[in-house]
Amino acid sequence: MIKMVKHRCLFLIFLFACVTGISFSQSNDSTKVVSHFGGSFTLTNKGVSSIPNLTLGKPAAIIFLSMGRKLAFEPEFRIAMEGKPWMLIFWGRYDLLNTDKFFIRSRINTSLVFKTIPVVYDGVTIMTMAASRTFTADLSTNYFLSKNISIGPYYMYVYGIEKNAIKHTHFLALRATFSSIKLSDQLYMRFVPQIYYLRIGKYDGFYSNATLTLAKRNFPFSVSTLISKTINTKIPIGENFLWNLNLIYTFNKNYTEKR
Fold first, then answer.
1. Across-strand partners of 156?
2. Which of 251, 145, 234 minimizes the C-alpha distance to 197?
3. Tens of pLDDT along 164-181?
4. Residue range 92-103, pLDDT digits in tens
5. Closest CA to 200 of 160, 155, 242
6. Radius of gyration, alpha carbons of the chain
7. Is the dihedral of CA 148, 103, 8, 159 positive or negative?
8. Does 35 reside within a domain?
9. Domain region containing 246
10. Distance (Å, whole) CA 25 – CA 27
11. Collapsing DSSP states into helix, strand and coil, what is residue 81?
């Protein structure tokens, strides 16, 4: 209970810092940018996660929102197409460094993961939905080889709050990002391959995956696919090969205040 309270307090402090940071970072110009609001809405034929026990494995919708700039609050709602919740994630984000050559970002979140489990009630087995809580922190670093090509490590730690949950999950990846591969004057691709080490409790393994996105300039819709392959693992859950197809709607708005 004490640990859970500490995690919630840390998260609330971070959110308070986001709000106050955004408020006091405004300049004294007559016209100034107040904040940014954006996000995306994704339809996928299979909800896939790099952590096997968080994969849904069936069609889902994902709503992602981002409010703020250097400091931001980024909630994410993952819902199965049948209407049942999959995951609710509440990210707090802070950009530590953003230059032409280096980009470093830190995030924390508290989340709810939903699963349908069998429960025996009056001698009858029924299926019911259960939610488990996790606390997550991550750190991503990118070194830009050119304007549209970067490479860097990514680390994520997940702590299971429930008494019977897996307490510690470690995710360490090396990823590259090719952000704008020109196909024509209007069409371009984004390619993000990565290899990663995953440790869930006492089990570990090595995996690889890649995301390929096809988009049109100044057009809100794009399509993407994620392909994931097991290299070598002792983790007893998850499939050796996964893929999905996604339709994504993206929006971004900047808001200004005039005096």
1. 138, 171
2. 234
3. 889 999 999 999 999 999
4. 999 999 999 999
5. 160
6. 20
7. positive
8. no
9. 2-25+41-49+60-250
10. 6
11. coil
